[in-house]
Amino acid sequence: MGKKLYITLGSPPVNAVLMAAKAFNIHLDLHELDFSKQENYSEWYLKINPTSTVPALDDEGFIVWDSHSILVYLQEKYGKDTDLYPKDLKEKLKILQFLNFDCGMLFRRMGDCLRPIFYDDQKNFDPKTLERAKSSYIILERILKQDKFVAGAYLSIADISVFATMIAQNAFMPIDEQEFPCLKKWYSHLKSFDFYGAALEGEVALKNGLRIKLEDY
């Protein structure tokens, strides 16, 4: 049966899983859902993922949804030869802390900016949501002044997850190197890894979709 990943291009959580899979050298069979036709709400997909979101992983009948859970699952089962998710409990908890931080704050604030543009036909970004999204840069700058990577001295799946969110946010709020030098350095460093190539198609799709939405007015 193989490992099937349900996706839509441009989704930051999908990009996170695609980059992790490339880092772990895992082959995934991609199944793209057509959100314009609400395929993610189809009866067959809701049986796979009752939240209707992407990504969702079907690993020979074992289902995992939520990108952060998928990252941990892929690392634990297939990425044992990498150091992206260490075995030490304290180091592991630091990574889980940042996965939750991405899910609970970074991704939510970024999504609050994009969702009205893509789904509510809003003409412009809301200044208040932009301000909240910019605060993510402020927090990450503070964190990256202390460490080379978000969870410490070494690259981890937390970096991949946060990076996927920042790719999307950078599309409409470019990271200012003068204001956020540590964040910009980290972002450029993450782009130098081979796994970034797995997110390029999604990044282009997001930028093109955003451009089309904004040019409609």
TrEMBL record:
Top-level taxonomic group: Eukaryota
Gene Ontology biological process terms in this record: glutathione metabolic process
Pfam families on file: GST_C, GST_N
One GO MF term: glutathione transferase activity
InterPro entries on file: Glutathione-S-Trfase_C-like (IPR010987), Glutathione-S-Trfase_C_sf (IPR036282), Glutathione_S-Trfase (IPR040079), Glutathione_S-Trfase_N (IPR004045), GST_C (IPR004046), Thioredoxin-like_sf (IPR036249)
PANTHER family, A to Z: GLUTATHIONE S TRANSFERASE D10, ISOFORM A-RELATED
Family, per entry: Belongs to the GST superfamily.
Subunit structure: Homodimer.
Protein name in UniProt: Uncharacterized protein
